[in-house]
């Protein structure tokens, strides 16, 4: 937990909470360079939901790990499983936000923007984290 505080993910999560204080779970997109794949990661405050409420499409539990050796414990969801996880969160009434990179050129390039949520509108949302 010590290395999670002060990391980029920590500040992104705090930015989301400043705008949406009732959010329960924040999924932050990350690119794993060794596999060149996009995954959505939940960090230490959100692990309780994955350990007890949210499961993989095959009914298994997501496993905690430390990706890229940064010392931040996380659970990573492959992009192809995101729809399944979002449906589970809606059924269990967990307030969530999914963030992905903004790839548009300009001042917000590669900042995180909201791509899915059940607590705010995505179309008119101009927040970047």
Question: How would you describe what is shown here?
Answer:
This protein has three helices and five strands. The chain is an alpha+beta fold. The longest helix has 12 residues, at 8-19. The model has no long low-confidence stretch (mean pLDDT 83).
Brief digest:
The chain has 129 residues and is of the alpha+beta class. It is built from 3 helices and 5 strands; from the N terminus they run αββαβαββ. It is 22% helix and 25% strand.
**Count of separate structural domains:** 1
Distinct helical segment count: 3
Work out the number of β strands: 5
Sheet with most strands: strand arrangement = 3-2-1-4-5
**Helix and strand run:** HEEHEHEE
Radius of gyration (CA) equals 14 Å
Low-confidence stretches: none
Q: What percentage of the residues does DSSP assign to strands (E)?
A: 15-25%
Largest sheet: 5 strands, mixed
Shape: globular
Distance between the termini: 21 Å
Determine the mean pLDDT.
83
Helicity level:
10-25%
User: Which structural class matches the secondary elements?
Assistant: alpha+beta
Short key terms for the protein model shown above:
3 helices, 5 strands, alpha+beta, 129 residues, single chain
């Amino acid at each position: 937990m010590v290395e999670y505080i002060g990391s980029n993910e920590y500040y992104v999560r705090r930015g989301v909470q400043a705008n949406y204080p009732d959010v329960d779970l924040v999924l932050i997109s990350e690119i794993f360079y060794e596999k060149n794949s996009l995954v959505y990661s939940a960090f230490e405050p959100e692990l309780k939901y994955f350990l007890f409420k949210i499961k993989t499409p095959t009914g298994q539990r997501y496993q905690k790990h430390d990706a890229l050796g940064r010392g931040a414990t996380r659970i990573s969801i492959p992009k192809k499983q995101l729809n399944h996880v979002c449906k589970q969160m809606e059924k269990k009434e967990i307030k969530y936000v999914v963030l992905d990179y903004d790839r548009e050129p300009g001042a917000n390039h590669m900042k995180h923007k909201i791509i899915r949520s059940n607590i705010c509108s995505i179309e008119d949302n101009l927040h970047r984290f």
